[in-house]
Write a structure and sequence with these properties.
Blueprint lengths: L3 E6 L3 H11 L5 E6 L2 H10 L4 E5 L7 H10 L6 E5 L4 H9 L4 E4 L4 H16 L6 E3 L2 E4 L4 E4 L5 E3 L2 H12 L5 E2 H9 L7 H15 L9 E4 L2 E4 L5
Parallel strand pairs: 1-2, 1-3, 3-4, 4-5
Antiparallel strand pairs: 6-7, 7-8, 8-9, 10-12, 11-12
């Protein structure tokens, strides 16, 4: 199971710690806390997260302005804003700043949790989605793998992208050849496993650092799996 990093930005220490403790009960979340907008921006200069939850009423910079600055950095992950101002105008301002959602205080944790999971699902299907895969950032919409160390781009074909994306969704579990064929080529395509194996071979030529040593795209009994998925 991949662990998703959530940046929680709120100057209310009690609320922040309570939310962090509640999220910590779920193994698929890792929460990082920041109390000011400036601390959050400084953190984002060097670290990547999968979601940002931020309060509108921060002490140094308005939360909506912070949201704008985050988006200007090119960060596309979901942003959920927390606010005590329940008005349509306030919501519109926040959404225009780049937020994905608004949650009004006081709120139920179960409601917030449902919003968090919903936005993760939506993001993973969106054009903006970026996934960590071993030494790469996998960008399905651009059909590209970007090498973390030097920014070099590895171009993928449409089928190679579809194979990686489907295997990524399996989160390290083995996927059978028949299942991959059905999902990538379609049930009635008439494509054989030889075609799949050819694509797998070419994909390995692009992504494995050493020939004949499969560290990322691994052959399993009857199928394949991806290793090196961010956890």
């Amino acid at each position: 199971m991949a662990v998703r990093k959530i940046l929680l930005v709120d100057d209310d220490i009690d609320l922040r710690e309570t939310l962090a403790e509640q999220l910590a009960l779920y193994e698929d979340f890792d929460t990082i806390e920041q109390g000011t907008a400036r601390d959050a921006l400084e953190f984002l200069d060097t670290e990547k997260v999968d979601m940002i939850i931020l309060d509108v009423g921060l002490p140094d910079i308005d939360g909506r302005e912070l949201c704008k600055r985050i988006r200007k950095k090119g960060i596309t992950v979901p942003i959920i804003m927390l606010t005590g101002m329940d008005s349509d105008a306030d919501t519109v301002i926040g959404l225009d700043a780049g937020a994905n959602d608004y949650v009004y205080k006081p709120f139920s944790f179960t409601v917030l949790l449902a919003r968090i999971r919903a936005h993760f699902r939506q993001y993973e299907q969106s054009e903006d989605a970026v996934f960590d895969l071993g030494p790469y950032q996998f960008q399905p919409s651009a059909k590209t793998l970007v090498v973390n160390d030097n920014g070099k781009k590895i171009r993928l074909t449409e089928k190679e992208t579809s194979i990686l994306k489907y295997l990524y969704k399996a989160q390290g579990s083995a996927v059978s050849r028949d299942e991959l064929l059905a999902e990538v080529w379609g049930y009635n395509s008439g494509v054989t496993t030889h075609t799949l194996e050819t694509h797998i071979y070419r994909l390995r030529q692009k992504i494995e650092a050493e020939q004949n040593i499969d560290r990322i795209l691994v052959t399993e009994q009857g199928g394949y799996s991806l290793k090196g998925i961010a956890a």
